[in-house]
Design goal:
Layout lengths: L11 H14 L4 H9 L8 H11 L6 E4 L7 H14 L5 E5 L4 H12 L3 E3 L2 H9 L11 E5 H6 L1 H5 L5 E4 L14 H9 L5 E4 L9 H10 L7 H7 L7 H8 L3 E2 L26 H10 L1
Parallel strand pairs: 1-6, 1-7, 2-4, 2-5, 3-4, 5-6
InterPro entries: DEXDc_RapA, Helicase_ATP-bd, P-loop_NTPase, SNF2-like_sf, SNF2_N
Protein name: SNF2 family N-terminal domain-containing protein
Pfam families: SNF2-rel_dom
C-alpha cells in the first residue's frame, strides 16, 4: 500500500486509492457494508441473494446462521458475497468445508466470480506445503477449502485458528452432529466451537425435527439447550411449532422458487404421455431380453 511522505506526493491516483481504502474500512450500515464487496463480483446478482448475504452479516454477536434456499437459487453465491465482504474488511481467516467433489468448484467460483484467492487442502497438498517450508498451511492469506472428512481429521489444527468465518456447504450431511456416534460432526463441533459459521443446505429438514436440532448445535450448542429439552418442547404431538418457527427465523433464512418468480424466469415443463404399441418383433425381443 502506498504511503504519504509529503503533501506533494499525493497524486490524483493515490487520492482515489486512499478514498477507496477508507470507504472499505469505515463503519457502515449493513447495506453500505455489503456494497463494498460487490465491486469485485463478476456475477449477476438477484435480490434474494443480497438479502441472504445481509442476513448472514447483520448480527455480529451471533455465532452463525443457516442459508437454506431451495436448490438452484445460488447459495454458493450468497456465501461468496459474505466471504468477499470479510476479505475486504481484512478479516481473512476464512474456511470452507464441503463434500470432496465440490472443493474445486468452490475454488473456481471464488476465483472467477469474486476474485478471491483460495487453496484446496487435502492430505497430499498439506504434506507438499509442509515440504515447501510452509509450517502451517492454514495460516496463509488465502481462503482454505477442505472436505468434511479431512476437516474432521484436522481437528487439532483447525482448533488452533481463530477463524473469522467457517462456511459449511451441504450441511445436512451433518444433521446428526449432536449424536455422540457421529464422529465427523462431533470432531467439527469441538474444533470449531465458538467460531462464527455459515451453514448452507437446501434440505434443513428431511425426516425429523431433531435434524434441525443437530444443525443448530453446529452453530451454537445453546440455541435450544440440550437434546432432552428440545424434544420436550417441540418434538412431540403437543410441540409448540409456532414458537419453534419464531426462534428459527433468527438464524435460518430460506427462499423458495415461488418467491423469486418475479425476476427469475423458470422454464415451464409439462409431462406428456404418448401411447405406444410394440410390433410383434419388438414384443418378441422384449420377452427374450427380460
Amino acid at each position: 500500500m502506498p504511503t504519504i511522505e509529503s503533501k506533494g506526493s499525493l497524486t490524483p491516483h493515490h487520492a482515489k486509492y486512499f478514498a477507496w481504502e477508507l470507504t472499505r474500512r469505515r463503519a457502515a450500515s449493513e447495506e453500505d457494508r455489503l456494497s463494498q464487496s460487490l465491486f469485485d463480483a463478476s456475477v449477476d446478482l438477484n435480490p434474494h441473494q443480497i438479502d441472504a448475504a445481509l442476513f448472514a452479516l447483520q448480527n455480529p454477536l451471533s455465532k452463525g446462521v443457516m442459508l437454506a434456499d431451495e436448490v438452484g437459487l445460488g447459495k454458493t453465491i450468497e456465501a461468496a458475497l459474505v466471504l468477499g465482504q470479510l476479505w475486504a474488511e481484512r478479516r481473512r481467516r476464512l474456511l470452507v468445508i464441503c463434500p470432496a467433489a465440490l472443493r474445486k468448484q468452490w475454488a473456481q467460483e471464488l476465483s472467477d466470480k469474486f476474485n478471491l484467492p483460495a487453496q484446496v487442502l487435502d492430505a497430499r497438498t498439506w504434506k507438499q506445503l509442509r515440504q515447501d517450508s510452509i509450517y502451517d498451511p492454514l495460516d496463509r492469506d488465502v481462503i482454505s477449502i477442505m472436505s468434511l472428512h479431512f476437516a474432521a481429521r484436522m481437528e487439532e489444527q483447525l482448533g488452533n485458528i481463530p477463524w473469522d468465518l467457517v462456511v459449511i456447504d451441504e450441511a445436512h450431511k451433518l444433521r446428526n452432529a449432536h449424536r455422540k456416534s457421529n464422529e465427523t460432526g462431533q470432531s467439527l463441533k469441538r474444533s470449531l466451537a465458538g467460531r462464527r459459521k455459515l451453514l448452507l443446505t437446501a434440505t434443513p429438514l428431511q425426516n425429523s425435527l431433531m435434524e434441525l436440532y443437530g444443525l443448530s448445535s453446529l452453530i451454537d450448542e445453546d440455541i435450544f439447550g440440550d437434546e432432552r429439552s428440545f424434544r420436550a418442547q417441540y418434538n412431540n404431538t403437543d410441540g409448540d411449532l409456532a414458537a419453534l418457527r419464531r426462534r428459527l427465523q433468527h438464524f435460518i433464512k430460506r427462499t423458495l422458487r415461488r418467491d423469486v418468480l418475479e425476476y427469475v424466469p423458470y422454464t415451464q415443463r409439462h409431462a406428456l404421455t404418448t401411447p405406444f404399441t410394440p410390433s410383434d418383433d419388438e414384443q418378441r425381443l422384449y420377452v427374450v431380453v427380460n
